[in-house]
Amino acid sequence: MGELRRIGFSLNPYNDAARDTLTRAESWCSGRQIEAWSAPADDADLIRTNCPGTDLICILGGDGTFLRTARAIGDSEVPALGVNLGRVGFLAKVETADLERTLEQVVAGQYSIEERFRISATVVRSDGNRETHACLNEVVVARGSRVRMIQVEVEVSGSHLATYVADGVVVATPTGSTAYSFSAGGAVLDPRLRNVIITPVAGYLSPLHSVVAGESHVVRLTLRESHAGALISIDGQTDLQMRPGERVEVRALPIPLRLLEPEGSTPFYELLRTKASLLPY
Question: Within the chain, how many helices (H) and strands (E) appear?
Fold first, then answer.
C-alpha cells in the first residue's frame, strides 16, 4: 500500500459507539486531507462500489460487522483494519481508543499485511442448480428447528471420511477456527495457515472428532437424512434451506483477505489467551 489518500469506514449504523468512532475518524481524515467514505456493513453493494481507489477500509464493530464487510470486500484486495467495538473481537487489531494513533502509524508505514485464507461454498441443489458464496470463517450444515440429529456424509477430494450423526458439521478456515468450530471442540489453527478444519457439532458415537485438510482438497458435505430439513449457514450471516440429497462443496479461494496489522499489535497467541479470558464460564 502506498500513500494513504482514501479510507473507507464500514459500521453498524445503529451502534452509538460506532457512530461516535466514525465522527472521530472523519475528523482525523479531514485534518490530513484524506478522503473518507462510510457505509453500513450490510450494504454490500455500496462497499463494493467504493472499493476501487480505496487504500484502506476500517471496520468499526465486532466480528459480525467484520464478516459482513469482508464478504463485500471480496476479491478487491483492499486491506482491512478491524476496530473492536464488540465483546470478543478476534478479528479486530485495534481498540477504539487507539484508532487515531493507529491511523498515524499507517501514514508512517508502520504496519504489515497479514493474508487470511478464504473459502467458497458451492451449494448443489437436487435439480442441479448451483450457487456459490465466499466465506472467511466457516460453512455449517446444521439441523433445522426440530431437535433431531441429521446425517451428513463428509468426503475429502472424493474419499469418504465419515457420515456424522450430529447436530451439524462445521468446515472452518484458520480464521474461523476460533468461532463455531472452537465451540464444537475443534482445535484453534494459526490464522496464517491455508487449511480447513472439519468438526462435527454434538456428534453421536463419532471416532473422528475433528480433521484438518489442506487447501488443495475439496470438502463435500451431503445431507443424507433429516427429519425436518437442515440449514446451510455461511459465516453465520446467510442461512439457506437444505434438503436430503443436496450437498455443499467447499474449496479454497485464490485471493485472501488482507488484514492490516499495525506495528506493536498483540501477537495472535497472546490475543487468544486475552480474549478467551473475556468469555463467560
Answer: 6, 19
DSSP H helical ranges for 74-124 = 99-107
Predicted local confidence at residue 1, as pLDDT: 65
Average pLDDT, the chain: 92
Report pLDDT digits (tens) over 124-171.
Answer: 999 999 999 999 999 999 998 777 899 999 999 999 999 999 999 999
CA torsion sign for 117, 8, 92, 88 is: negative
Min mean pLDDT across 9-18, 53-62, 120-129, 269-278 is at 269-278
Beta-bridged to residue 247, according to DSSP, are 124, 222
d(C-alpha 205, C-alpha 200), whole Å: 11
* Residues facing residue 168 across a β-bridge: 142, 201
Radius of gyration over every alpha carbon of the chain, rounded to an integer in angstroms: 20
Q: How many residues does the chain have?
A: 281
Active site residues: 63
- CB count within 10 Å of CB 13 equals 13
CB atoms within 10 A of CB 53: 10
Q: How far apart are CA 279 and CA 259, in angstroms?
A: 24
Q: Which domains does the chain have, with CATH numbers?
A: 6-117+256-276 (3.40.50.10330), 119-252 (2.60.200.30)
